[in-house]
C-alpha cells in the first residue's frame, strides 16, 4: 500500500522521537515536472521525500 505524505511525515517524527532526536523539517520533495499527476488520481504522486535535520 502507498504511504501518504502525512503518514511519511508522521513516521519521520516518530522515528526521531524514538531516537531521542529533534527533527526539523527542511523541505518536502515530489517527482519532477516531467512526471505529471492527475488531480483525480492522487496515487500517481508516488515519489515523496522529506529532508530533515536531526539534532
Question: What's a concise summary of this model?
Answer:
With 55 residues, the protein is an alpha+beta fold. The chain is 25% helix and 27% strand.
Report the span from N to C terminus: 31 Å
Return Rg in Å.
Answer: 13 Å
Run of helices and strands: HEE
- Gross morphology: elongated
List the defining traits of the structure above.
27% strand; two-stranded antiparallel sheet; alpha+beta; 1 helix; elongated; single chain; 55 residues
Note down, in words, how this protein is organized.
This protein has 55 residues and is of the alpha+beta class. The protein is 25% helix and 27% strand. The chain has one helix at 5-18, and strands spanning 23-30, 48-54. A two-stranded antiparallel sheet has the order 1-2. The longest helix has 14 residues, at 5-18. The protein starts with a helix and ends with a strand. 0% of the residues are buried.
Helix-strand blueprint:
Blueprint: H1 5-18, E1 23-30, E2 48-54
Antiparallel strand pairs: 1-2
Amino acid at each position: 500500500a502507498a504511504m501518504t505524505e502525512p503518514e511519511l511525515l508522521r513516521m519521520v517524527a516518530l522515528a526521531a522521537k524514538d531516537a531521542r532526536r529533534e527533527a526539523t523539517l527542511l523541505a518536502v520533495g515530489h517527482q519532477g515536472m516531467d512526471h505529471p499527476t492527475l488531480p483525480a488520481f492522487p496515487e500517481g504522486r508516488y515519489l515523496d521525500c522529506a529532508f530533515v535535520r536531526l539534532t
